[in-house]
């Protein structure tokens, strides 16, 4: 863990400073409120890697853009939080499978952490930190 990052976050994870200072990794999980803006980039990578044909990508991206345009922003934010939580859970399960322990941390100063790490508050919502170590 970078001492720079540790110093910036220490007072913002008030009840979990031990994990911040001693874990091998301390990961901030974010939800992206504007993930729909990156659909072509995300799906394009799947095409590039051979996971998906380009025509399927174009169909899916067009469908999702149309769908997202009709969904209230609050619903997209809720979906983003759910997706981020599932990704965090998967990361924790994989870490465990590789012999690491994890600790999800929800008690921290969310707005202040975004400021300290220079993260765009309008785009990103902090979900949790995950401490990983042995």
What labels would you give this structure?
alpha+beta, NADH Oxidase
Descriptive overview:
The protein has 134 residues and is α+β, with helices and mostly antiparallel strands. It has one domain: NADH Oxidase, CATH 3.40.109. It has 6 helices and 3 strands, in the order H-H-E-H-H-H-E-H-E. Strands 1-3-2 form a 3-stranded antiparallel β-sheet, sandwiched between helices. The mean pLDDT is 90.
Summarize, please:
With 134 residues, the protein is α+β, with helices and mostly antiparallel strands. It is built from six helices and three strands. Helix 3 runs antiparallel to helix 4.
Low-confidence stretches: none
The level-1 CATH class: Alpha Beta
Per the CATH scheme, the topology name is: NADH Oxidase
Helix count equals: 6
Shape: globular
- Coarse structural class: alpha+beta
Order of strands, main sheet, comes to 1-3-2
Topology:
Blueprint: H1 3-9, H2 17-22, E1 25-32, H3 39-48, H4 54-69, H5 73-97, E2 101-105, H6 110-116, E3 124-133
Antiparallel strand pairs: 1-3, 2-3
Helix pairs in contact: 3-4
């Amino acid at each position: 863990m970078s001492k720079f990052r540790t110093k910036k976050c220490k007072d913002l994870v008030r009840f979990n400073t031990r994990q911040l200072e001693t874990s091998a990794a301390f990961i901030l999980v974010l939800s992206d409120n504007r993930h729909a803006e990156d659909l072509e980039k995300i799906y394009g990578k799947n095409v590039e890697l051979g996971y998906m044909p380009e025509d399927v990508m174009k169909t899916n991206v067009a469908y999702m853009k149309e769908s997202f345009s009709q969904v209230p922003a609050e619903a997209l934010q809720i979906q983003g939080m759910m997706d981020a939580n599932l990704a965090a859970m998967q990361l924790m399960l994989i870490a465990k499978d590789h012999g690491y322990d994890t600790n999800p941390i929800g008690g921290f100063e969310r707005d202040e952490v975004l400021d300290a790490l220079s993260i765009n508050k309008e785009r990103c919502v902090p979900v949790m930190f995950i401490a990983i170590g042995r």
